[in-house]
Specification:
Length: 350
């Protein structure tokens, strides 16, 4: 049960993927199934537990506690014979066997040998793999296309992947041929994945953050826009959460665009039992909505920065497509962008 709850939390926190054709997993005492954005049950609750659709497929757990894959019609396409399945992406899924990891081609129902210490999900046709404490990349045939020789790598995004030979040292970006196309003139940097044409680069010493484009040029320089702190994360839907100014009791926070311009900000009082480093009032935009938390309750703003759903929820996830999963008083479930309940159940853990 702990594993299921952990996976569910990770899946909901992630904003990289969207529900396929507005199918959303539901899990209650009746079992696991799927609804559409109106709350209609599309795939009946005949499973023990269901996870979200990524593309055409979803990981589900059967009544015998084994994992398999179904398609959007509810048809079983990978039998329930696995103790562990994870990181479904680009029609591939990762399985674990004897503490090693391999990949399964869902459509062809072909699996590789489980020989890797770690595997990350496929992105842009390649998957990062770790073997003997070194990272490289394989293609969908399971062939090594970039030798495992790096201390760390990011996933490929916009055709590039960040690499480092040592922690915070000799870092840059390679293309899919393994050629270094962006290098840095200084060490002690931690480059991240590209998204929406920009990649954050973290400095190891002071944790400051700048953003580069695909040519390696700095387009948002932390040194020039102090005291803005952007957490060194990716942009989502053209915006990034930033701290603009803060002191031990108040913090000015909001959103920055990809030119480094502040588009919206609000001043918040920091609760006495929360440090400024732990405080976060805004979340990234997803599906044109973003979370805002005031006095420990969460609501949602739209891209015009207008409050469209009041902060009443004790716990909330991002909108993925038309719905968001929230917890309120004695129930939890999905709401739509009007704040109306679409599907709910009695709240667990009360």
């Amino acid at each position: 049960m702990k594993r299921i709850l952990l996976i569910l939390a990770i899946l909901f926190l992630s904003t990289e993927n969207v529900f396929s054709n507005n199918l959303y997993p539901i899990n209650d005492k009746s079992g696991g199934g799927f609804i559409d954005s109106k709350g209609n049950i599309i795939i009946e609750q005949k499973f023990n537990f269901t996870f979200r659709f990524i593309g055409n497929y979803a990981i589900v757990q059967s009544k015998n506690q084994k994992y398999g894959i179904i398609d959007k019609s509810g048809k079983i396409v990978l039998n329930f014979e696995y103790e562990d399945l994870s990181d479904l992406s680009e029609n591939f899924v990762i399985y674990k066997e004897n503490n090693k990891y391999g990949i399964i081609d869902i459509e062809k129902n072909i699996k590789s040998k489980a020989i890797y210490d770690r595997i990350r999900p496929f992105k842009e046709g390649l998957a990062a793999v770790c073997i003997n404490n070194k990272w490289g990349f394989i293609n969908k045939k399971g062939e090594t296309v970039i030798e495992a020789k790096y201390f760390d790598v990011s996933n490929f995004s916009d055709g590039l992947a960040a690499i480092s030979y040592e922690k915070y040292k000799t870092a840059g970006y390679i293309n899919k041929n393994g050629k270094i196309v962006i290098t840095f003139n200084e060490n002690n940097l931690d480059p991240k994945e590209f998204k929406e044409g920009l990649a954050p680069v973290l400095k190891g010493e002071d944790k400051s953050c700048s953003y580069i484009n695909k040519k390696g040029k700095i387009v948002i320089d932390k040194a020039k826009i102090n005291p803005i702190n952007s957490y060194c994360g990716n942009f989502y839907e053209g915006l990034r959460v930033v701290f603009i100014d803060n002191d031990p009791h108040n913090i000015l926070t909001g959103y920055m665009d990809k030119k480094g311009k502040i588009k919206y900000s609000m001043l918040f009082s920091i609760p006495e039992n929360v440090s400024e480093g732990e405080f976060n009032a805004f979340e990234d935009f997803n599906s044109n909505m973003a979370q805002i938390t005031i006095d420990y309750k969460t609501g949602y703003i739209n891209k015009e920065f207008k409050l469209v759903i009041p902060p009443i929820y004790e716990f909330a996830h991002d909108f993925i497509g038309d719905l968001a999963y929230v917890k309120f008083e004695n129930k939890e479930g999905y709401i739509n962008k009007k704040g109306e309940w679409v599907w709910s159940k009695e709240r667990e853990g009360m």
